[in-house]
Amino acid sequence: MPLEKENGGQGIRTVQRALDILACFNEEQPELNLTQISEKIGLAKSTTTRLLATLEQNGYVEKDLSTLKYKLGKQIYYLGHIAGKSIELKTIAKPIMEKLRDETKETINLHTLEGIYRVCIEQSLGLNTISHSIKIGVKHPLWAGAGGKAILAFQNEEFIQMVLETAVNPRPQLMSELEEIKTVCFCSSIDEEEVGSSAVSAPIFDINGVVKASLSISGPTSRFSQENIINYQKIVKDAAFLISSKMGYVHQEKVR
Predict the structure, then answer these.
(1) How far apart are CA 160 and CA 5, in angstroms?
(2) How far is 123 from 191, CA to CA, in rounded Å?
C-alpha cells in the first residue's frame, strides 16, 4: 500500500521521511525506539508513528512488542539479496583494474574463491615490456601467493586448516601472516608461488562482508622494491575497497 495518498511535493517529502527512518538503523544501533527515531529525523512522534506503521505493514521494519523497539524488516533483507545478486563483480572491477594498471604499469588480477583454490577471472595486462601474466580460469593455491592469502585469511578456521593440509612446504609463519592480513587488509608475496614474480593483494568484500575474491598487482620481482611494495599496498587496498563498496559492502572500522 502507498505511504500516503498525497501528490506533488508533499508526497515526495513523505517518501523521503520514510527513507530517513530506514537510514536511522546501522550496525551500532540495529534497534531503536520511537523517541530515538523521531529525534534522529527531526519529526514529531505522531508523524513518525504513522510512517513506522506503514513501513511495518509492508515488512520494511519490525516492532518488538516486549521492548517497543523497531528494527529493519525482512523486506529490506530480501531487496538487499536481490541487489547483491544483480551486481556483477567483473563488470564493476574492470574499469578500476584498468585505472590501477595504468597507474602502476603492472598486471592487475582479479581472483575468486573456487573450492579450496583461487582462480583468476579477469586480468589487465601490464604495460611494461616484461610483464607478469597468469592464465584466466586456472586454479592456484590459496596458501601461496598474495592473491590467495588475501582470500584465505578471511575464511573460517576449519576451512583454513583444510587448505593448509594440501600445502606443499608451507611457511611456518603463514598462520601469523594470515592473522596480520585480517588486521591490515593487504598482503604481499615475493618469489612465493613462482620464482621471479611478486605480488601485492587486498581482499574484496561482498554485500554481506564475506571475502570470496581479491585484487592483485603482480610483476617481476626486480620491480617490487620495498618502496614500491609499500605504495602498492595502499593503492591496491583502496582499489579493492572501492570494488567492495560498489558491491554493496558497508565500510567497517576493521577495514583500514
Answers:
(1) 55
(2) 20
